[in-house]
Design brief:
mainly beta, 11-stranded mixed β-sheet, 34 strands, Pepsin-like_plant, Cathepsin D, subunit A, domain 1, globular, aspartic-type endopeptidase activity, 436 residues, Putative nepenthesin
């Protein structure tokens, strides 16, 4: 069904109201590194009949949604996020059904005629199980808090085997909610049912309280910059053309930015930091070093490039430059010092470390550099957009079906706005070095 044929009142508007919680822990990225405050974005969803609550990570880098199921081998039993972990039991849900191998989208078949899944993440986490369909429950608050719930079918994975990072209680959750590009993702499933447009918007708060919002629909704000998605790519990948430090373009070989299977920049809310290939990372670090006062000592600490500041005369915002990532269609993503630096406790003064890491074959932008901006993931028009934004403020939302703007301003919070069908979710921020 074409998005233009859908009635505007049939759309879901998902407001993910974010709650902040920060901790400091030893981070694992191939090895133990340093005491580093880390962040992870997740929300609660309700599945099955009767509905049960599950805490799931919001991940634009994943297409398959899944939750831990009963009799899971390797699933964590506790979480240091201070949440109660739950396990989905298809047998206890009256609306649950197992997807058979004969389903037209089934790629892996188990011996008991169950359509299966097997996911290997880049940080050594792995999960496998079988595919099921059940109801995800949504509250209609447009008619008041006592209005009945609505339900939508959702096909997702039932994980019964986990290994690697996923077995750890550190940042353990009940599963992942996949916001990727392809047909198995949440946005694609809702679109195919005529319940959501092929566009969603995300804003992550960067202050100590964390928080933010995710909306199914396009946020309409002034100064929004758009750049096209690179065609035929698995992830949300956009074409990085140049980088500027304090508005001066760095001398980087243009071939470094050539779009291929391993070039281009991935936008991924399932990742904390930013990763640049060596030909981009080195010029950035060199330019920052040449810009800051010579009195600032630079040091490498377990793979992190850090700066030791022993005077309080100037703030970090005054010392460090802005970094502009310049994408196709003249769309620039400007990073302030607080977007690419993080404070690490030091015996003398302050140690500010780059949240930018060097890689061999991938450029990836995670939550640290995406914060305090509204990002629009527009699959309908194959583009990504962004603008600086205070994530605590109400927003304007439009739908591509009618082209009419839905005014969501004038209230004290996004929860106060009314659409035909709104699901209000909450997810917390937690800081973690996880690459998914």
């Amino acid at each position: 069904m074409s998005i233009k044929k859908l009635n505007i009142h049939d759309f879901f508007y998902f407001y993910f109201i974010l709650i902040g919680a920060r901790q400091t822990s030893k981070c694992v990225w191939g090895q133990q590194i340093l005491n580093y405050p880390y962040v992870l974005y997740y929300t609660t969803i309700h599945l099955g009949s009767p509905p049960r609550e599950f805490h799931v990570q919001i991940d634009t880098g994943s297409d398959v949604s899944w939750v831990n199921c009963v009799s899971c081998n390797g699933c964590p039993q506790t979480s240091n996020l201070l949440i109660k972990l739950n396990y989905f039991d298809p047998a206890s849900s009256s609306t649950s059904s197992i997807i058979p191998c004969s389903h037209h989208k089934c790629a892996i078949c188990s011996t008991n005629n169950r359509c299966s899944f097997n996911i290997q993440y880049e940080d050594d986490g792995r999960t496998s199980g079988y595919i099921i369909s059940d109801l995800m429950h949504v509250s209609n608050i447009s008619k008041g808090p006592l209005a009945p719930n609505f339900s939508v079918p959702l096909v997702f994975g039932c994980s019964n085997l986990q290994s690697g990072r996923l077995t750890s209680h550190v940042s353990a959750l009940d599963g992942i909610l996949g916001f990727g590009k392809y047909s198995t993702s949440l946005i694609s499933q809702l679109y195919s049912q005529g319940k959501a447009p092929r566009v969603f918007s995300q804003c992550l708060k960067g202050d100590n309280s964390g928080g933010g919002i995710v909306i199914f629909g396009e946020v309409v704000e002034p100064n929004m910059s758009y750049t096209p998605l690179i065609p035929n790519q698995i992830h949300y990948k956009i074409n990085l053309e140049s980088i500027s430090i304090n508005e001066h373009i760095l001398n980087i070989d243009p071939k470094v930015f050539t779009t291929s299977s391993s070039n281009g920049a991935i936008i991924d809310s399932g990742t904390t930091m930013a990763y640049f290939i060596e030909g981009v990372y080195n010029p950035i670090v060199e330019a920052i070093t040449h810009t800051i006062p010579q009195s600032i000592v630079t040091t490498d600490s377990d793979g992190f490039h850090c700066y030791l500041i022993t005077t309080s005369a100037l703030s970090v915002m005054d010392i460090f430059p802005s970094i502009s990532l310049n994408f196709a269609n003249n769309a620039s993503l400007v990073l302030r010092p607080q977007d690419y630096l993080i404070l690490i406790p030091a015996l003398e003064g302050e140690k500010w470390c780059l949240v930018i890491q060097k890689t061999q074959d991938i450029t990836l932008l995670g939550d640290i550099v995406l914060k305090d901006k509204f990002f629009v993931y527009d699959l309908a028009r194959q583009r990504i957009g962004w603008t600086n934004y205070n994530c605590s403020l109400p927003v304007n939302v439009s739908t591509p079906s009618s082209g009419k703007e839905r005014n969501k301003k004038g209230g004290t919070s996004p929860c106060d706005k009314h659409e035909k069908l709104i699901m209000v979710l909450a997810f917390m921020t937690y800081m973690s070095l996880i690459l998914i």
